Amino acid sequence: MTVSTSSPSGTDGVRVVTVDHPPVNALPVQGWYDLADAVRAAGRDPAVRCVVLAAEGRGFNAGVDIKELQRDPGHGSLIGANRGCAEAFAAVYACEVPVVAAVRGFCLGGGIGLVGNADAIVASEDAVFGLPELDRGALGAATHLARLVPQHLMRTLYYTSRTVTAAELHAHGSVWQVVPFAGLQDAALALAAEIAAKDGHLLRLAKAALNGIDPVDVQRSYRFEQGFTFEANLAGTAARVRDTFGKED
User: Which positions are tagged coiled coil (predicted)?
Assistant: First the structure.
């Protein structure tokens, strides 16, 4: 699993954190912690005024590595995934500077947690967003999906495990820009550069101020959801549903 950090030339004050974990960027426990560390480190750097969260490969993020959970006869991997996801989502939300998510392909499960906590989203035309949690024996990230779509749509998407397109989210105002796949990186960097052109101290104050007036405590809300994930595991429901993963017709 690779989480890399780079500073593209010609984009002063912008740091790019990129995930590349084949085949589908479904992250193991350590991957979520590595991502959290990279985002926090970028935000702490006084030379950075905006962070771009990006991915390589077939899609932006496919959530938790289900196979890692299946290999664990106990609950250690589940607890690790719960805590790791909470750390990564919190790192994006609490990053000291604005975070722009550059979304390609699928953005599922934990991917929704990342983009839902980002400050802005730029997506390629092929991007789709959704929470297949009920099909994976899990719960969670409704907190973050609710930041992307209206309440009743969030519930319908959650119950059905359906996805929505980048164009649909753009219509709801949660995706800033939809671009051809080949132009995603340039578009995300252009937005980040526009943000990074502002005074760095004021940007950090603005980020703290905007987080402070949020109507929902996203970290507490998400951890509340995770309690039901663990309850489903203790009841045996999660394992029964999760064992169907990869065996769908």
Answer: none
